Amino acid sequence: MSGDLDQATMDRLFAKARTYSKFTKAPVSDDLLRQAWDLARMGPTSVNCQPMRVVFVRSSAAKERLKPALAPGNLDKTMAAPVTAIIAHDMEFYEQLPKLFPHADARAWFVGNEAMIQSTAFRNGTLQGAYFILALRAIGLDCGPMSGFDNAKLDEAFFKGTTLRSNFLVNIGHGDAAGLYPRGPRLDFDEACRVE
């Protein structure tokens, strides 16, 4: 491989990175969460819209609010994780566009266009969530991204009366390799790609 990143970094981000279901008891500091945010926010989004919003669920009280929304298979691992990030998107992200995209009236492109708002918020919020996973790995944390929860219940518990909508969850901590399954296969280039 060519490029500026060394192999150890490429392994940390991609080749040897795993999805963790179990974590050690080591805490995850607010400073580490801020570092991950500061990296993830630099990834590109369309018209620099940055719709992702994150709620870090750490306290026992917050975990109890999260618990009813979780699918049974995700309950124990999420309750045991040091932190769970709710990756959400703001359905009124366009209100920030005068600040984030000041060289055009991009806000006007979205106001009243519900289909464009929904697709842009979801697509770019998901993209930012992927950047966030890589940022967590880059600063030495492990994660377990997942769906497997009731979005409506979660939104009622955490976002009632707001313009935020949940997308997916990411359990965050220092991974315990004892909980890993064998790595699943991946599609080869020729199975998933074509060049035209």
Automatic annotation (TrEMBL):
What's the EC number here?
1.-.-.-
Q: Where is the Nitroreductase domain?
A: 18-158
Q: What are the protein's GO molecular function terms?
A: oxidoreductase activity
Q: Which UniProt keywords apply?
A: Flavoprotein, FMN, NAD, NADP, Oxidoreductase
Q: Which top EC class is named for this enzyme in its record?
A: oxidoreductase
Q: Which CDD domains match?
A: RutE-like (cd02148)
Q: Which Gene3D superfamilies match?
A: NADH Oxidase
Q: Which cofactor does it need?
A: FMN
Q: In its keyword annotation, does this UniProt entry include Transmembrane helix?
A: no
Q: Is the keyword Flavoprotein in the record?
A: yes
Specify the domain of life of the species encoding this protein: Bacteria
Protein family membership: Belongs to the nitroreductase family. HadB/RutE subfamily.
Q: Which HAMAP family match?
A: Oxidoreductase_RutE_HadB (MF_01204)
Record protein name field: Putative NADH dehydrogenase/NAD(P)H nitroreductase CCC_01095
